[in-house]
Each structure stands twice: as C-alpha cells, then as structure tokens.
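Forgive a beginner's question, but might I ask you for the amino acids of a protein and the tokens describing how it folds?
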Amino acid sequence: MFLFLFFLGWEKLQDITIGIAKGIEYLHQGCDQRILHFDIKPHNILLDQNFNPKISDFGLAKLCAKDQSAVSITTARGTIGYIAPEVFSRNFGNVSYKSDIYSFGILLLEMVGGRKNKKEDLRVYVEDNGDAKIAKKLAIVGLWCIQWHPMDRPSMKVVIQMLEREGDNLTMPPNPFSSTSPTRINASTLARHLNLDLEVIPELE
C-alpha cells in the first residue's frame, strides 16, 4: 500500500512519520556503511497491513563511510520536488545524508497538508486540539528538515526526538527559503534549546 492513499488520522500519521524517520536513521547510522537513499518520496514508502512503513526502491542509493561528511555525485538524482538544493548546485553546500533529510521534510509537509507536489489533493481534517498539536509539530519538524543550507537541517536522530516528544517546546525555524535570514538558527542551536542529545557528525564548510 502506498503512502497517501487515504487519511488515517493524526495519531496514526504521527506513528507513520516516526517509523519513516527511524528507517532513514537506520540507513544513515545503523548499517556498516551509511546508505544515502536519494529518492525519499510517497511512492517509495510502503505500508504493511498494520500500517508500519517500509522504505523501498534503492535504485538511486549511494554507499559511503559513516565519517564521510560529503559525497560526490556526477549528476542530480532523485525525483523533482523532493531533491535537496545542494544536489542541483554545490553553492548551497555539500551533498550528504542531509539531502535525505530534506526529502523527508518535503514528504512530511505533504502529509500534514494532505497534498502531493503534483496531481490530486487529499482532504485532511483537524477535529480537536490534540489533532492541531500533532499537525503543528509535524509541520515545524518538516520546516526544519527543508532548511536551504544542509548544515541548518537536524540529523535524523534529532528529528526522531522532536517527533516523539510534545511539540509545545519546539522552536519555529527561520524561513527555509531565505538565505540571509537575520534570525538564522542552526541544528546545533535547536538541539541545545530542546535539551536533546545531538549526534556530532562533522560537516565540511
């Protein structure tokens, strides 16, 4: 079953997003080598009979060492609408595991809004205050994940911690499409504010 077939309710949607995030975290940190998927999108997220998400289609994936902070690719790879800016142009930063996090952020925002980048929309209802809190939390996490510069995006470990806790204390991210935002907050600052254990992974400037 493909993700986005129908709306399942906000609590179930939250569970699915956490499952997807844990799957991506496993690819990035749980294997002997880091696996960069490069094509995180709805059609590559399958749900089993219990609505547990499974990441599929590794045709564009790339292996790299866990301590490798940037990877080299000769051409852009992925699906339009989900590709991180740095995959198109190195002016935005280095291509790394953060490119998958950008794609996850787009996916997350589409789940919250009930729409795809293309074609049909899906009716999504917020029925009570609990639903509104979950929707707001998912939206904030999604906006953190699509920050324009890779170094400003949280690691998937931090994303999971954000998704699993109450959303009241989450900091709103700066405008992800403004490269000169005067209130720019990076992922390290976010983790300190939330009192999260940020996994230290070196990045190239």
